[in-house]
TrEMBL record:
A GO cellular component annotation in the UniProt record: phosphopantothenoylcysteine decarboxylase complex
Name used for this protein in its record: Coenzyme A biosynthesis bifunctional protein CoaBC
Gene: coaBC
Family: In the C-terminal section; belongs to the PPC synthetase family.
UniProt lineage: Bacteria, Bacillati, Actinomycetota, Actinomycetes, Kitasatosporales
Cited function: Catalyzes two sequential steps in the biosynthesis of coenzyme A. In the first step cysteine is conjugated to 4'-phosphopantothenate to form 4-phosphopantothenoylcysteine. In the second step the latter compound is decarboxylated to form 4'-phosphopantotheine. Catalyzes two steps in the biosynthesis of coenzyme A. In the first step cysteine is conjugated to 4'-phosphopantothenate to form 4-phosphopantothenoylcysteine, in the latter compound is decarboxylated to form 4'-phosphopantotheine.
Length: 221
């Protein structure tokens, strides 16, 4: 039985990947399975926290003992995070949020036109929710954690992203075969705004989740 070191705390976790609809049958999405976010929610609940899990398109069973909020798009995720973050001690943004969405939503299915060139899809930028909640903390001392998937120069890109986003901790994953997207295992480095660097060896997503909560718990007063 783990130490109930998050008892009395409210934590918000986002999981999965947003889908940005083009028309009633198509969307722009990503390969996030939601497994890391669900592991974060489960482990926080086991450590005594009240957990709000905001889940975007994860095909996973509902975890016991957490408040589950399901969303589809980045805008819906943003609204759910802002609402839940109001009284949260920590917000962990494990979801893969689409950076762009289609500029227009076609209410009828887009038809293929055989004799025409394919039409380009115009995109507009989605809000950066992590940067937004980091900039205006809903309560003093709130800890904000981001995730970043990188393919090269992982630490340098991670440090720059941590500064840009303004969060307290950034979990940097190296994307590769058998790692990260859809996998059961993960390998990461957790960077702290205080300059700390915590390597997490290749292993189950639960182990990475426990390390994240260790670092969060140490930063809560
Ligand atoms: O910039 P990048 O997408 O690599 O950053 C990833 C982190 O930022 C994740 O924690 C993700 O949940 C968050 N994010 C966000 N809003 C976006 C894009 C990413 O909150 N529009």
């Amino acid at each position: 039985v783990p130490e109930p070191d998050l008892a009395g705390r409210h934590v918000v976790v986002t999981a999965g990947g947003t889908r940005e609809p083009l028309d009633p049958v198509r969307f722009l999405g990503n390969r996030s399975s939601g497994k890391q976010g669900y592991a974060l929610a489960r482990t926080a609940a086991a450590r005594g926290a009240r957990v709000t899990l905001i889940s975007a398109n994860a095909a996973l069973p509902d975890p016991a003992g957490v408040d589950l909020v399901t969303v589809g798009t980045a805008e819906e995720l943003r609204a759910a995070v802002l609402k839940a973050a109001g009284d949260a001690d920590a917000v962990v943004m494990a979801a893969a949020v689409a950076d762009f969405r289609p500029a227009v939503y076609a209410t009828g299915k887009i038809k293929k036109q055989d004799d025409q060139e394919p039409a380009p899809i115009a995109l507009v930028r989605n809000p950066d929710i992590l940067a937004e909640i980091s900039a205006r903390r809903a309560r003093p001392g709130q800890i904000v954690v981001g995730f970043a998937a990188e393919t090269d120069d992982v630490l340098a890109h991670g440090r720059a992203k941590l500064r840009r986003k303004g969060c307290d901790l950034l979990v940097v994953n190296e994307v590769g075969e058998r790692k990260t997207f859809g996998a059961e295992e993960n390998e990461a480095v957790v960077l702290g705004a205080d300059g700390s660097e915590t390597p997490v060896p290749y292993g189950p997503k639960e182990a990475l989740a426990e390390t994240v909560w260790d670092l969060v718990a140490a930063r809560l007063d």
